[in-house]
């Protein structure tokens, strides 16, 4: 998905996304407590579930939004690591037996299978704390009050009116028939909130933007977050476990409502395309500065895993 | 435990602690999402486990330390509410079947018994997020960089090298024989870290203190945190369930090492007395400003529940 004005070369996005993945991986490896630090088993589990896997979509969004405000990459990598820690914590807890009871994640046994339930629970808890510690410890914005704002929006995105709340609604929806607006509301919390926080965190790492520009970025993030989930459902319906690295067809089998079950496969694909167009439209005023964000949106919609 | 110069009247501490408990209770009731806000069951669970119970020792320490720096009570109540939310989250997760598997807490069924395991897990997760949200959202210090420092120290206290790490070590210790230094290390993380954070948070809400004074307060908090745990073990050995509001004798029955099992009951009581003296000594330079902190230390050691 090359951008439209020709300065970003086709194929270039793949190299960029690999570079971002490499940067956030090394930041995570450095910022997570070493396995030899006590309690070693807990730190092993935190590293096991955070390092070496995942698409790093949230990290890409942090770096992509950081390009809009010409943010320092050293700030972006800390913000991206924090967001990826929060994402990893949510996956560990989601996979627990009392939640989705999943045994496979990113092609590896889930944390509670590899370690044990108590360690998995605490690894998730510790990752959430560490994310906020990093967001407060490193200098991430021009002004400390902006950084407080960043922590506030990230915490809100994680909480009971964000990610954790979306997970609660999701669990409650098993076996029920949701309407499309109800499904959209659930996903806007469960995955959408952290995706929006990722974009805004990245932008706040750089030069201040007028509120109207922040609103455009947030609108972009909203469409991208929604598209991410629609495509997830399409891949879950069509994909194979080897490519996805997780159990396939599970949502359908467990009676969880999905976009494909509610809309049908072809309309869900059309919907993803519309959301991509909406996301690109939200970036219209940013020109070349938003080239990476455009590419990320294209990647999210056209990915195969 | 009246203070030594006579300006604080005997009996006065009880009224003060009731006032603090009332303030933090109303702050929590206001700052926790209302039960009618979706997802309602999750918000019910968060309120159930945070409101209406507990000794509010951490809130008292926030307010007591705030008196040292003449901090605004409106700031202290937000900081105290955040700390009590973190404490409540840790209790919810500790009580889960994969952890201590407890059914009684503060005289009520534990969160996963009253609701369900998934809701309890998410309620804990959401409380941790909300605590950091509040610490970032409200103005709590003279300068925003001080407030970032407060968030950093609170997050560190919660994390894998603090409270969550202590819980991991505690679980790992079941059925093992720990030495006294190992037991002390475990408790310094499991309960000590958040108690120390409570004192420093309260102090940072007010006028800046020189580092040496912060070090004295931290030393006070270290002794008080240790004393708190020693007395907990004594009460668990001697107490009855009705007064404590939780299952009694359980640590002993489950083979968890305790101060009383390692030292014996009478030496543990002497040790608690020594820790109280050490805590008071750490406050020697503060005069009347630390009267409440002295009283809290006395309360922690002489409490019956």
Walk me through what this model shows:
The structure is a homodimer of 305-residue chains. With 305 residues, chain A is mainly alpha-helical. Helix content of chain A is 70%, strand content 1%. The first copy, chain A, contains 15 helices and two strands. In chain A, strands 1-2 form a two-stranded antiparallel sheet. In chain A, helix 3 (57-68) crosses helix 9 and helix 14 (265-282) runs antiparallel to helix 15. The longest helix of chain A has 28 residues, at 211-238. Chain A starts with 11 loop residues before the first helix and ends with a helix.
Fraction of residues of chain A in helices? 55-70%
What is the general shape of chain A?
globular
Query: How far apart lie the N and C ends of chain A?
Result: 16 Å
Average pLDDT rating of chain A: 92
Structural class of chain A: mainly alpha
Q: Strand arrangement, largest sheet of chain A?
A: 1-2
Compute the number of helices of chain A: 15
Summarize the largest interface: chains and residue counts: A-B, 52 and 52 residues
Biggest beta sheet summary of chain A: 2 strands, antiparallel
Number of strands of chain A: 2
Strand content of chain A: under 5%
* Assembly type: homodimer
> What's the helix-strand series of chain A?
HHHHEEHHHHHHHHHHH
Radius of gyration of chain A, Cα only, in angstroms?
18 Å
